[in-house]
Amino acid sequence: MSAVRGLLGWSGLAAVIALVWIGVSAGGPVRADVEEDPPEQQSLRGDTLYSNHCARCHGADGTGGSNELSPPLVGMEAARVDLVLRTGRMPPAREDGSGQGDIEWDDDNREVLLAHLTAVFDLEGSIPSPEEGEAAVGREVFAKHCAACHGYTGDGGVGGAGAFVPRLLGLDPVTVAEAVRVGPFQMPRFAEEQVSDQDLGHIVAYLEEVAAEEATLLNLVELNPVFLAAFVGVLAIAMLFSCLWIAGRVTMFPDAAPTAADAAETEGGDA
After folding, report:
1. Model pTM greater than 0.70?
2. Which of 62, 153, 172, 269 could form a disulfide with 222 if both were Cys (CB 3.0 to 4.6 A apart)?
3. How crowded is residue 108: how many other Cβ atoms within 10 Å of its Cβ?
């Protein structure tokens, strides 16, 4: 009987947990498709999102704040705004404006906010869309324009003057294309004359193929050139100190100390 009561008790507890879980899931924010929202509702949602997450730094009228980390949004490139939303770099994690922040935007809210900003602040341009590309060609394009900072496998690291270089593997194609076109933070921008839309597709194809490959031991091949140089330097210093330590040690197999019998035998021989 006690076993039955125990079973009923555990079943009741499981049911309560299931009900709580369903309630929490149902109580989360509802994500309706942008196309299904009427224009007035989209505008209201966009205005609310901007007021809650952006206006404190960029100003209610989008004219910007008091420093370069809160630039005016009026007339800004739509691709630049979309890029910082996609990568979560608003607000930035570092004082220099780089690094990933702690805000994540889902596609629905990002599109609503971007549409609102385009309508209110006259964002310029459009969102790039990379074409289909070939990984083999992308390897050459990437080596020419990107590998010097991002590493030959796009693993990121640290560039010159302490610039933060993000990891490219795992980014969606649009994010990669936007970064190439707008040149966020310390990264230079590449016009279509330098990197064509077709080249963007090749770069994306190359990064996708690299991401699908297994990493090498300790990620040595994937290291950013700066990190690789630091790794080699630390390894060289460790080997140098190891050699000095070994050279300065007492002989590892010293002669055994003479025993009393050996001393007596030596004295008898001398006599």
Report:
1. no
2. 153
3. 16
Rounded to whole angstroms, how far apart are CA atoms 182 and 80? 6
CB 174 within 8 A of CB 128: yes
For residue 45, give every residue at least 6 positions away whose Cβ sits within 8 Å of its Cβ, in sequence order, or none: 37, 109, 112, 116
For the domain spanning 135-225, the CATH number is 2.60.40.420
Query: Measured between alpha carbons, how far is 131 from 137 in angstroms, rounded to an integer?
Result: 13
Tell how far CA 35 is from the center of its chain.
31
Fold of 34-121: Cytochrome Bc1 Complex; Chain D, domain 2 (1.10.760)
Nearest alpha carbon to residue 227 among 114, 149, 138: 149
Written as six digits, the tokens of 174 are 């649009």
Question: Can you give the residue ranges of every domain in the chain?
Answer: 34-121, 135-225
CA within 13 Å, CB half, 240: 6
Output the tens digit of pLDDT for each of the chain's 271 residues.
544 455 455 555 455 455 444 443 443 333 434 456 677 888 899 999 999 888 888 999 999 887 777 889 999 999 999 998 998 877 665 555 555 555 678 899 999 999 999 999 999 999 998 889 999 999 999 999 998 888 888 888 767 666 778 889 889 999 999 999 999 888 889 999 999 999 999 999 999 998 887 665 555 555 556 566 677 788 888 888 888 887 776 555 555 566 666 666 666 555 5
